């Protein structure tokens, strides 16, 4: 299975996402923002970073880059697409997920190992979890406050489209403690925290068992592998 | 060359941390006649040629679709600069 990772000008975690894909047993494929070629991949990751220096709005310019027309078509045709942090902002700006992300309510950039509760375990990227699982993955953002209109929020909650919620603290003022969303079809998932940074023992968050041994994020990438094999 | 100005503001009900920080600084400087500050964006679109109704309509569309995000911002004006 081939998973494309799009590099935009200002992407930072593209290689980390490629590494997580490899650790999960799939083949990472580097995709370029300026191209219109998805190179036959089976799934796509929009990585974290600060595309276009967060100019205009976070993710706004990247959402209108050449490759995004193919990404949007593929997502609408059911291809799994995961947006991490800036990638989540890009998905929202591309209208593949509803709502918006604004500056953290406390005004500061925040970097911490964050506990999340899995709220939807039937998406392409979360099927390896069980609803109610609590996972720990790194969070690092300045503009991660999720907001949506009352109407959209009601729909997200009513239709089970909240994929992850913050547990313990709400690190950025997100409405309803929302950390991540899925679309109704379950192929498009976006979240602010970074699963790719918790995918290899020795380089993840601390756990009670050992320092930096947390690999809860790897399940995102093994999930998409199982999903693709099951639907092949 | 003529210029179309687009003004975009964060929605009134949203927290504007940048504006709040400036308001805090004003307060510390003793400028107590100003109780709040909100910070928005001004875009200046230089037009190659005449500003026709079609060009203005295009600018309005762009303002709503790309220069602002309706979830978090309002376009408060699209006008030809004097």
Written overview of the protein:
Chain A is an alpha/beta fold. Chain A has one domain (2-231): Rossmann fold (3-Layer(aba) Sandwich). Chain A contains 5 helices and 11 strands, in the order E-H-E-E-H-E-H-E-E-E-E-H-E-E-E-H. Chain A has helices spanning 14-23, 66-76, 86-93, 150-158, 218-231; strands at residues 2-7, 27-32, 43-46, 81-84, 100-102, 110-118, 134-141, 145-147, 162-166, 178-182, 188-191. Chain B is built from 2 helices and 3 strands, in the order E-H-E-H-E. The chains are: A alpha/beta (232), B alpha+beta (82). The interface between A and B is medium-sized, with 18 and 12 residues.
Write the layout of secondary structure elements.
The complex is a heterodimer of chains A (232) and B (82).
Chain A lengths: L1 E6 L6 H10 L3 E6 L10 E4 L19 H11 L4 E4 L1 H8 L6 E3 L7 E9 L15 E8 L3 E3 L2 H9 L3 E5 L11 E5 L5 E4 L26 H14 L1
Parallel strand pairs in A: 1-2, 1-3, 3-4, 4-11
Antiparallel strand pairs in A: 5-8, 6-7, 6-9, 9-10, 10-11
Chain B lengths: L2 E8 L6 H12 L12 E6 L6 H15 L5 E8 L2
CATH homologous superfamily title of chain A: Class I glutamine amidotransferase (GATase) domain
Q: Spell out the helices and strands of chain B N to C.
A: EHEHE
Number of helices of chain A: 5
Query: Which blocks of ≥5 consecutive residues of chain B have pLDDT under 50?
Result: none
- Globular, elongated, flat, extended or rod-shaped: what is the shape of chain B? elongated
Q: Could you list the spans of chain A in which at least 5 consecutive residues all have pLDDT below 50? A: none
* Percent of residues in beta strands of chain B: 25-35%
> What is the straight-line distance between the termini of chain B?
11 Å
CA distance, first residue to last residue of chain A: 10 Å
- Strand element count of chain B: 3
* Structural category of chain A: alpha/beta
Q: Quote the beta fraction of chain A.
A: 15-25%
Spatially, the strands of the biggest sheet of chain B line up as: 2-1-3
Just give the CATH class of chain B.
Answer: Alpha Beta
**SS summary, helix count of chain B:** 2
